[in-house]
Amino acid sequence: MALLSVIRRWHHRDQLSIREIARRTGLSRNTIRKYLRAGTAEPQFKVPERPSRLDPFAERLALWLRREMARLRKQKQTVKQLHADLVSLGYDGSYNRVAAFARDWREDYRRQQHMSDRGTFVPLSFAPGEAFQFDWSEDWAIIGGVRTKLQVAHVKLSYSRAFIVRAYLLQTHEMLFDAHNHAFRVLGGVPRRGIYDNMRTAVDKVGRGKERSVNTRFLAMVSHYLFEAQFCNPAAGWEKGQIEKYVQDARHRLWQPVPQAESLDGLNLWLEERCIALWKDIPHGIEPGSVADAWADETASLMPAGRPFDGFVEHGKRVSPTCLVHFERNRYSVPASFANRPVSLRVYPDRFLVVAEGQVVCEHKRIIERSHDGPGRTVYDWRHYLAVVQRKPGALRNGAPFLDLPQAFQRLQRHLLRHPGGYREMVEILSLVLHHDEQTVLRAVTAALEAGVPTKVHILNLMHRLLDSKPVATPPVTAPKALRLVSEPLANVERYDALRVDGHRENRHAS
């Protein structure tokens, strides 16, 4: 390129002869004449056609590439896999040659189909209250001093671009429903349409075109909030490009540096406050003012959220003979009357209810373990086993559910189990919580221990005093003066010594 420029400048500007230019450059005069006759500012070289080891396999490779274009993004084979298939057919060329062929073939295919290349999109426009977009992402936070991987739900209004973020330990149906409840609460209402990708928590099966087999519980939530669910085409993230872009921006605004919190609830509270604060700082870009200003205009167009959706997921379980139900590798106690019987678990993000015969039997705080190496944890409620120990009071000594009794009950148990019949008496005292407030029973037990009379009779007496709003401690009695003795008896042991001496003298006394 530089040499051609010099030749053209010497000949056309400096009027040097071809012979002189050939002498200065060392090129032949025919080469110089060819450059000057071409009349171009840069040389063009025709690449000679050379045979390639890929030529015998080119037609087959083109058929494979056409097949891959029709597949979903996650089902497509990579060029490395195609190269390995060609090697199994006898191809002994390099991977780079196959990659270059695939790149050229795709460019020709797009030109023939009048397709735009990646990175070219159509700008979208939304009316106030028309739509929101939803997506999941994975991020990290330090919770209780432990670096924890989180599943983060993102909801963004398409018109005002107001957004809300909520973090969970899992990406399940109950987490999805809870994220919508909190999002509509913070955003002040529900848009008329929700835009989603084909996530497994909403879509059970992707059909042709826009056909979707939608999860039943997800449809129940959509029906509850009265919005229309729209699902993007597979591998077409640009159809909800606002939330896709926001997921990237949120990592810089919220997750760098890594946030810290004592609990997941504390982290979500901070995320909610931080998102609302960012609305005021981020310019809208299209509408005048900030995101908060556009959101204030959009709230009037949103549908009222109403009561939150009861977003539980139900699982059928069978209670074991030890009154335990298994869920997510952990075990939870159930009242003994439901042992060996089927029950339902209504699972929420942070708890679950055990339901039988249309009634809530008990409730447990949900334990979510990230590690799958251990045997799981067992959560007991000693109240669930009272019906068993009433028939088998000896189980109190080594019963695992009774190792975590309140401190007052433990002190009473250590005292009673040292005496005959103490097991049954302890069971009868524990059973008082089935009919009375547990704190009232604990107050009576504590008062009996402090008085030094930890017996069932005394505890029942104190219980009745507490239930009747009477004082537990008996005040001292002050006798009136009329009842006092004029001459109070004195303790004198010498009288008994005199009787002993008289007896020694063989004196007879009436018995």
TrEMBL record:
| InterPro entries the record matches | HTH_IS21_transposase_type, Integrase_cat-core, IstA-like_C
Q: Which PROSITE patterns match?
A: HTH_IS21, INTEGRASE
- Provide this UniProt record's keywords sorted from A to Z: DNA recombination, DNA-binding, Plasmid, Transposition
The answer on whether this UniProt entry bears the keyword Transmembrane reads no
Which stretches make up the Integrase catalytic domain?
124-254
Single annotated GO MF: DNA binding
Residues in the signal sequence:
none
Q: Which Pfam families match?
A: Mu-transpos_C_2
Q: Name one GO biological process term.
A: DNA integration
Where does the chain cross the membrane?
A: none
All copies of domain HTH IS21-type, residue ranges: 3-65
Q: Which family does it belong to?
A: Belongs to the transposase IS21/IS408/IS1162 family.
The molecule here is called IS21 family transposase
Upper lineage: Bacteria, Pseudomonadati, Pseudomonadota, Alphaproteobacteria, Sphingomonadales
